[in-house]
Amino acid sequence: MLQDICTVFWRDWVVLKRRLPKFILSRMVAPMLYLVAFGWGLGRNIQVGSGSYLDFLVPGIMALNSMNISYNSLTPLCTERIYHRSIGEYIIAPMRFNAFIIGKILAAVLRGLISSAIIMILALAFGANLNITPLFVGILILNCVIFAEVGFFAAMKMDSYEELSQVNTYVLLPMSFLCGTFFSTRTLPEVLRWFIDVLPLTHTSYLLRGISTQSPVALESVAVLVVYAIIGFILGNKAFRDQLK
Amino acid sequence: MIKIQGLIKEFQVKNKDKKTVTKRAVDNLSLHVKPGEIFGILGPNGAGKTTTIRMLTMETKPTLGEIYYNGESIKKNPLEIKKLIGVVPQHINFDNDLTVGENMELHGRLHHMSSEKRKQRIQEMLEFVELGDTINRMPRSLSGGMKRRLLIARSLIHEPKILFMDEPTVALDPQVRRRIWELIRALAGKGTTVIITTHYIEEAEALCNRVAIVNKGKLIAIDTPEAFCKSLGRITVEWDDVDGHQYQFFESRQEAAAFAGTLEHGAHIRRTNLEDAFIELTGRKEGV
């Protein structure tokens, strides 16, 4: 099983290695804009609690960016499944399906972490104060896992790029702005807040921000993320097995 | 040996009224393939050939029925059985983000080959299909014939005992087709069991030890190409009359010539071939 996971990961690593400079450059654009617009521009004179708005903003940007990168890392599987049909090569191979799913998720996590590292470096260059701990990295990984699973599930279920982009538009984009990334959800109406508090990105944002400001860790939020990751894996596994129907 | 028993595959499809209906792609198929033979599955488009191969290679699950490899059901130990088989799909399914060499490497890794063995087999197989100089090229830069040969090379890296080839020569020019036939014969010569689907009758006739003729998901007949021709009559008389193109089969050329002499219009006398058997068995109105 481990050998098969490594094989699947190897494939994605070969592709990423070839495009690494382009990947890094392209991943710098969005966080740079967020940092300039909201951190430097809009948020320069805003104080949030005892810190600056930039300190408040960076964990949120890392959460939303790792979500987007992990999700979009696995959406090309949709074309590999429908048009190139290269997934058939894995289905006929003597490997367990879970190995394929885990290998793909790990490759997406790697991309998410590279992207997060870029934001961290940029944020430090912009003068943000960050407290990066192993738990911070662990939460970031968990967030990448959850949204890689969402990407995997969507790639197995959707039949075109248009449908995949609808997930971006109707699910990821609203979450990017509403899940405690740019502002606290406490200011939102109660009904909306209740709904938003259920979403995984909200828990990631608050956990990362809490760790970064050395506040006590909300263990129930960690538990929620773990539950999301488990459900995501089960659904991804089922979606992949459905390819055999 | 491969044994198929009562294989059925049904799909849910939408009809013209957009209602979901059940379509049976393979209907109660039973047959066996002997070790070392080139076995052909011949049928018109939509006959269920690809679906059969996909079930045999475990790409899709049968709705009903059993498949056995060397007496063992595929349900019992699919991973062990997958090690025995190689697949040349109809659709060119290379990973377009990897080079030719990396695609081959991926296949070797997926079949748990050691690094040394992989390296050696990749080179050997690329040489075997005369593509040794393409290792660093992207698959999309290869011609159609080269891609087909590369599919064969990839399927052979892990030295499968059984090779499935789904329409391996479709849309290729005659020269490339003949070259692929030579490759298939060379493989069978080395003891590999080859199961090939085709809708090219001359391909089945030229290559296969035995042929199963399928139509609308059902097995129509199974025999050697020679036996199919013999069952009709070795000699065919073809002629045109007011009712259209006509055929009649005879045991000897003398009988055929005597019959042709009775016809008002000119007739063509020739050896019976697999196409005649195919048309007789699947019906003259079926498109091939």
TrEMBL record, chain A:
GO terms for cellular component: ATP-binding cassette (ABC) transporter complex. InterPro entries: ABC2_TM, ABC2_TM_bact-type, ABC_2_transport, Nod_factor_ABC_transporter. Coiled coil: none annotated. Pfam families: ABC2_membrane. It comes from Anaerovibrio lipolyticus. It is found in: Cell membrane; Membrane. This is Transport permease protein. It comes from the Bacteria. One of its GO terms (molecular function) is ABC-type transporter activity. It is a multi-pass membrane protein.
Automatic annotation (TrEMBL), chain B:
GO terms for molecular function: ATP binding; ATP hydrolysis activity. Gene3D superfamilies: P-loop containing nucleotide triphosphate hydrolases. The keyword Transmembrane applies. It is found in: Membrane. Residues 2-241 form the ABC transporter domain. GO terms for cellular component: membrane. Keywords: ATP-binding, Membrane, Nucleotide-binding, Transmembrane, Transmembrane helix, Transport. Its main location: membrane. It is a multi-pass membrane protein. The keyword Repeat does not apply. InterPro entries: AAA+_ATPase, ABC_transporter-like_ATP-bd, ABC_transporter-like_CS, ABC_transporter_ATP-binding, P-loop_NTPase. Pfam families: ABC_tran. Coiled coil: none annotated. PANTHER family: ABC TRANSPORTER ATP-BINDING PROTEIN, ABC TRANSPORTER ATP-BINDING PROTEIN NATA. Belongs to the ABC transporter superfamily. This is ABC transporter domain-containing protein. It comes from Anaerovibrio lipolyticus.
